[in-house]
Amino acid sequence: MTAQRPTTWFLATGKRRLRELRRLREIVRVLGRNGLDVVVEQLQLWDWIPRRLLLRSARPRPEVRRMSLPERVRHTLEELGPTYVKIGQLMAGRADILPPEYLAELARLWDHAPPEPADTIVGIVERELDKPLEEVFSEFDRHPVAAASLAQVHRARLLDGQEVAVKVQRPGIREQVQADLDILRDQAWFLEGRLTLARERRLGQLADELAYALLSELDFALEGRNAERLRRNLATLSFARVPRVFSDLTTTHLLVTEYVCGIRLTDRDALASSGYDLRAVAIMGVRMYFQMIFEDGFYHADPHQGNIMVGEDHVSLVDFGTVGYLTPEMREDLGALLAGFVAEDPQRMATVMLRMDAMHEYARVEALEQGLRRLLLRFHGLEMRELAVGEVLTDVFTIAHEYRVDIPPELALLAKTLILLDGVARQLSPGFVIVEELRPYLIALAGKRFDPKQFARESLDFAEQTRYLVQTLPVRADVLLDRLERGKLVVGFDLLQLDQLARRINDVGNRLSFAAVVAALLLSSAVLLSAGPDVAVWKVPALHVGVPIGALTFVAAGFFGFWLLISIVRSHR
User: Fold this and answer.
1) Catalytic residue among 219, 302, 333, 406
2) Which of 54, 305, 386, 448 is geometrically suited to a Cys-Cys bond with 58, CB 3.0 to 4.6 A?
3) Known catalytic residue at 302
4) Could you give the dihedral angle defined by the CA atoms of residues 44, 48, 53 and 58, in that order, rounded to the nearest 10 degrees?
């Protein structure tokens, strides 16, 4: 049994690689149809996909030629399926990486898919619960109330009469997403090893972050825990509601929560016709979010579409797959950054970026200050109601991107959340000023820096770190001096693009060796042919036939020489 394990592992790995290769061919076709074959060139996918594949079946469509590059990217993501749509939605909040025109286009991505057959969904529910449907639910609506690319939601009723929402993961979606993410991460790390810009933007790390976020959305047990945590945090707000999670009915692929009735926060007309005070509703939603962000540091990061519902005297949240985390230090830095913006102080803003450990080269501080100063001039003289907090942060992160300053991805996600929140609030009440609601939280964050208890905790932490440093410094110095005396001190460094240079040298060596073999074949064939038929033709006595060695050698040399020429032309090098 043990002896079969390596074979089983090899077959499983081979099947997975074959699926990835088929998916890669499909990706190449889609990129070509949308006029993005330059991406194929950069990723060097010709090593795996024949060039004729793109030329024959993936030519850009006529309508694509009239699109801008950001529009082509959006269409490509939509055509590639749910994994890439979700990745695009996640990237729509990364103002620290993408230019504004790409952010605006990615924000238009719509996650929708036709529903799975009812029998398939019932089978999944029964398999996850390990019991027939009627033993759990007295009613189960076979028509989903919502269907997205990763899951769909059905309305149901438990045996005790409790109305619930049943979120069911689509069959096979995890395997499809995992295969796409494997390809994405492989190519991201490949590019990071080849391109300076990819290294500066930490493309491999970004791919890992996206993979983690997307796989987290596929873990419905984790989503249930997120909902319960938000439910506990918001218990102090009388107007905030988070549906209860039925943990005993929740698995990795199935989530059962209370069914939330109400009107979507984005449906202004329905709220107005039902007699709601739209400004009061906007204030409730904003205060709920500001408590999650600035007080709890754990917040619902997807405030759009039907994810916020309005009841009689409360606001409810649904869909907890995307959440954001902010450490106490991040919250303080965020408050200081916004306070620097309000005070029109670019130096303070640049200092905060340094404190966030987002900037490692002090020489760029002055250049960053100049960029921030130009940004502040654009907003100078505007009234509070004309400022959008999310857009302000996005503009700040765009400036940071221009000066190659790293911004924590948690803050980039927060900027996207605030943009959506501000848009919803203004849609409900055009005169609503979200900055006015933000002011008390900024004052509270600033006050925490001077809180005696906080100061005492920070002093104790600093004293502990200093004690550890003093205790270990003699040992470290002794080890360093000992290695220096014995000539064993090793200094490690990385040569940028060394791997790329090594590959180029290896390719050149292989081609030279191959060319030498071709030349030897040509020379030997010429010698054999010039020596006459007695030498050029090898006679096999047993078979009474003659083998034209000279002619065969010449044909082989011509074939291999032509193949070498084609490979050089195809490589563009």
Assistant:
1) 302
2) 54
3) yes
4) -50
Indicate the SS3 state at residue 40. helix
- Residue 524 sits in the same domain as residue 439: no
The total number of structural domains in the chain stands at: 4
- pLDDT tens, residue by residue, 214-273: 889 899 999 999 999 999 999 999 999 999 999 999 999 999 999 999 998 878 889 999
Q: Is residue 108 in a domain?
A: no
- The Cα 30–Cα 19 span in angstroms is 17
Answer whether residue 93 is part of any domain.
Answer: no
Angle value at C-alpha 101, between 95 and 107, nearest 5 degrees = 70
Amino acid at residue number 73: V
Cα separation of the two ends of the chain: 50
β-bridge pairing 163-169 and 254-258: antiparallel
Structure-block tokens of residue 200: 């500066």
| Contact indicator for 297, 335 with CB cutoff of 8 Å | no
Nearest partner of 39 among 184, 180, 181, 177, judged by Cα? 184
By C-alpha distance, which of 302, 265, 268, 307 is closest to 420? 302
Phi, psi of 307 (to 5 degrees): -85, -10
For residue 418, which of 395, 399, 440 has the smallest C-alpha distance? 395
Indicate whether 383 and 401 sit together in one domain: yes
pLDDT tens for 67-86 read 888 888 888 888 888 888 88
Do 163 and 155 meet the contact criterion of CB atoms below 8 Å apart?
yes
Percent pLDDT > 90 in the chain is: 23
Q: Which of 259, 277, 301 marks a domain boundary? A: 259
Q: Which residue has the higher pLDDT, 501 or 430?
A: 430
Buried/exposed code over 283-307 (b: 16+ C-beta within 10 A; e: otherwise): bbbbbbbbbbbbebbbbbbbbbbbb
Q: What is the chain's percent helix, strand, coil content, to nearest 5?
A: 65, 10, 25
304 neighbors 345 (Cβ within 8 angstroms): no
Residues 161 and 282 in one domain: no
* Token pair 């709601």 in the structure block, residue: 276
Host H or E run for residue 539 = strand 537-540
| Rounded-to-integer distance, Cα 43 and Cα 32, Å | 13
Distance, in Å, from the CA atom of 203 to the CA atom of 499, rounded to the nearest integer, reads: 17
Looking at the structure, tell me whether residues 274 and 312 fall in a common domain.
Answer: yes
**Does 498 score more than 70 pLDDT?**
no
User: What angle do the packed helices 434-448 and 328-342 form, to 10 degrees?
Assistant: 120
Structure token digits, residue 237:
């707000």
Hey, what are 570's tokens?
Answer: 């195809």
Is the per-residue pLDDT at 7 higher than 80? no
Q: For position 66, what pLDDT does the model report?
A: 79
Say if residue 456 is exposed, middle or buried (CB neighbours under 10 Å; 0-12, 13-18, 19+).
exposed
Gyration radius from the chain CA atoms: 31
The answer as to whether 15 is a domain residue is: no
Containing domain of residue 326, as a range? 264-450
pLDDT, position 2: 45
365 residue type, one letter: V
> Last residue of a domain, which of 259, 278, 293?
259
Could you give the C-alpha distances from 555 to 514, 520, 536, in angstroms and in order?
16, 13, 13
Residue 152's identity, in one-letter code, is Q
Q: Within this chain, do residues 399 and 441 fall inside the same structural domain, yes or no?
A: yes
| Residue 101 covered by a domain | no
